[in-house]
Please model this.
Amino acid sequence: MAIMSPVMTVMQKAARKAARALARDFGEVEQLQVSMKGPADFVTAADKKAEQIIFGELSHARPGYGFLMEESGAVDGPDKSHRWIIDPIDGTTNFVHGIAHYSISIGLEREGQLAAGIVYNPLTDEMFWAEKGQGAFLNNRRLRVSARKNLNECLLATGIPFHGRKGQKELIADLNGIMDNVAGIRRFGSAALDLAYVAAGRFDGYWERGLSPWDIAAGIVLVREAGGLVSGLTKDPVLETGDILATNAEIHNAVAALLPKA
Ligand code: LIP
Model:
């Protein structure tokens, strides 16, 4: 039975409250107020509303903590040792197009280290969660990464840059290096769920370049606590570059060797 700490209870409560609001909006996606935040990138009214719900819940429960949020940016708190890292809708483009694959991602940093994370899929009611040193869980079931060692039996996931995003050449080079060596590559559109799927053993590995801290903070804790390995694609820290490789650890070096250094 998974034992949840008080702070994990707070994180999951905030995610579920935001998810109830998102469910209403997802059902009416066509009526959402949409303003262009950048080419092919949408900011939905749902995104901002969900973020405000999460911000309200977490700042009430832990008044001193700071925040780093996708829509509202950084909000400093008097407690400099704790920071929430929040993506209210990871998979925004899926959401706006009515594609049923998105998540709420809440990470917690303590003394500069990732200490806890949740990735919640409201459509399947799958709460992926983990606290440092306590293991990773999907609802009440313990998670372990896959045990596959043979790369040509492995399923990987990645993200594909789009209009207005950099990285097209790098991704093509990545795909040229990897495609012929694996059983398949998927692009589902939510980095947080891609990382949760590595932790759950559904994907054997995931890589992507140019992500934001809120896309990956929670998922990194999930993969590590499920026995996986997370590294950058260069010598710089993952949260700073947004270039990430997360695997079941067995295949990490083999995949890293196929990815050109940025
Ligand atoms: C998305 C990531 C996805 C990436 C997209 C986008 P958002 O996050 O989850 O993996 O490929 O470019 O960054 O914008 O939906 O929160």
Summary: The chain has eight helices and 15 strands. The mean pLDDT is 92. The pocket of L-MYO-inositol-1-phosphate is lined by residues 70, 87, 90-93, 159, 189-191, 208, 211, 215 (CB under 6 Å). The longest strand covers residues 79-90.
